[in-house]
């Protein structure tokens, strides 16, 4: 879930100086209105990797906000007094009044994270602890506390460099603790993902903050806080801002933006690799091991990215009796009368079979989000619902492969025109395709958020350049074969 946040996200110092006054003005305006209304309070929780600059980030935030209405609460091991009370007592005690803002370090997540990493918390205990956190945060949200949770991330090499720099300046005990967590970085990332998946709710969202560049880090934090307060002021409900920062032109690179669109494969190599992979897929799908499992394939991507062509190369070596392709379009009246996942539940494959979705449940956070067919609350909630849905599929024995096929805007235009000029392809191009193209940037934002929030260890996204159809088709087949070999 941290893929795009670990991409190089930078803000030139000159651009930051130009952006800073706008940031400060809008943030302060939102805070002052909140102070005047006194109808909700804000809790800003900071967590994530040691060395990411959480303290520096909050220090700068203090300089931008009205500090008299801002308090910082830092928690470490509970005091003797705290031990005589229930675990959440000290957090309840320090909650800000309406109109006020509290920044929280070492929150209720720290004991759970630490004990899980070091094996002091088993699966049942971990789930019980997360359930208690969800109950606590939902209660706060119901009492009009706006909860904003930030997870700071850094590339491994950068974290190591920063910890060495900190070590040179200080021999404090916390430095030893920082190195200890660095050594457990992989486990911490795994536990962190589990925590975020279980506790990122519309009423208490997590935001992942790329922290390699201090200016980008702090601007991203300030803008997210600003947008969240503005939304809360606008309608009185706790809402998450799932779009990237928009003030002053600060942009977030997503995993989709990082796809290398130059990847190609010549026809001869394509034919050889395609045939070999199709033969392998045919053999694997005919095994007893596969008959006990089953597979779900999800294809999403830019319009005209070649989803249909890739699907045809996948089904060619399969026995027609074991697969079904489901082209997904707008829901029918019957489907609209039921929860949006209903139409996908009823299309799931039995064991030993394959269900292929040409577009899928992800339309909820793509088309329905961008076109306004789903409310802000509905598509925001859908990330968690989709992750839970896919976890159920996997727990039942199904293998889930998800593909995002990407092309450039120029290549899409070329393919659109080719479809219009080719009689047997004209049915593929519609007025909706041209309308959607006008919202290219909005769809790019939605796709980036989708990848960030639903690419998990158990159901990762595979991002493929489809600028070259040969390349894309081989990569799809290779991924499916690799996953089957890993799972069976």
TrEMBL record:
Known EC number: 2.7.4.33
Catalytic activity field: [phosphate](n) + ATP = [phosphate](n+1) + ADP
Pfam families membership: PPK2 (PF03976)
InterPro entries on file: P-loop_NTPase, PolyP_AMP_Tfrase, PPK2-related
Residue intervals passing through the bilayer: none
GO MF terms held by the record: transferase activity
Tagged with keyword Lipid biosynthesis: no
Key words of the record: ATP synthesis, Transferase
Official protein name in the record: Polyphosphate:AMP phosphotransferase
Source organism of this protein record: Roseibium aestuarii
Designated gene of the protein: pap
């Amino acid at each position: 879930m941290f893929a795009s946040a670990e991409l190089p996200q930078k803000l030139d110092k000159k651009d930051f100086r130009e952006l800073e006054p706008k940031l400060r003005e809008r943030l302060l305006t939102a805070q002052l209105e909140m102070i005047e209304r006194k109808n909700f309070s804000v809790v800003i929780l900071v967590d994530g990797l040691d060395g990411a600059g959480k303290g520096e980030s909050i220090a700068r935030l203090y300089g931008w906000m009205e500090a008299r209405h801002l308090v910082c609460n830092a928690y470490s091991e509970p005091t003797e007094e705290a031990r005589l009370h229930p675990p959440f007592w000290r957090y309840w005690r320090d909650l800000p009044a309406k109109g006020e803002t509290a920044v929280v370090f070492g929150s209720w997540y720290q004991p759970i994270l630490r004990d899980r990493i070091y094996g002091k918390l088993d699966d049942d205990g971990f789930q019980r602890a997360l359930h208690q956190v969800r109950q606590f945060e939902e209660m706060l949200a119901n009492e009009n506390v706006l909860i904003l949770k930030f997870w700071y991330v850094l590339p491994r090499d950068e974290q190591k460099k920063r910890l060495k720099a900190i070590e040179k300046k200080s021999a404090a005990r916390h430095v030893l603790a920082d190195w200890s967590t660095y050594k457990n970085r992989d486990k911490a990332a795994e536990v962190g993902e589990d925590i975020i998946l279980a506790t990122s709710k519309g009423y208490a969202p997590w935001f992942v903050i790329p922290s390699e560049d201090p200016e980008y880090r702090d601007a991203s934090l300030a803008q997210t806080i600003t947008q969240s307060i503005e939304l809360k002021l606008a309608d009185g409900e706790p809402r998450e801002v799932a779009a990237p920062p928009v003030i002053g032109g600060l942009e977030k690179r997503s995993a989709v933006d990082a796809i290398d669109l130059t990847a190609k494969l010549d026809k001869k190599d394509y034919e050889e690799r395609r045939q070999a992979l199709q033969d392998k897929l045919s053999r694997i799908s005919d095994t007893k091991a596969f008959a006990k499992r089953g597979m779900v394939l999800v294809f999403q991507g830019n319009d005209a990215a070649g989803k249909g062509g890739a699907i045809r190369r996948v089904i060619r070596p399969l026995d027609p009796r074991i697969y079904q392709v489901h082209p997904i379009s707008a829901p029918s009246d019957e489907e609209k009368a039921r929860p949006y996942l209903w139409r996908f539940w009823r299309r799931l494959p039995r064991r030993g079979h394959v269900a292929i979705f040409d577009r899928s449940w992800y339309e909820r956070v793509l088309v329905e989000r961008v076109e306004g067919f789903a409310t802000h609350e509905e598509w925001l909630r859908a990330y968690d619902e989709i992750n839970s849905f896919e976890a159920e599929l996997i727990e039942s024995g199904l293998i889930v492969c998800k593909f995002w096929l990407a092309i450039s805007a120029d290549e899409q235009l070329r393919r659109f025109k080719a479809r219009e000029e080719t009689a047997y392809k004209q049915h593929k191009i519609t007025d909706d395709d041209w309308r959607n193209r006008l919202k290219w940037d909005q769809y790019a934002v939605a796709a980036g958020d989708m990848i960030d929030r639903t690419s998990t260890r158990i159901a990762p996204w595979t991002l493929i350049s489809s600028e070259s159809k040969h390349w894309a088709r081989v990569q799809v087949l290779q991924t499916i074969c690799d996953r089957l070999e890993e799972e069976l």
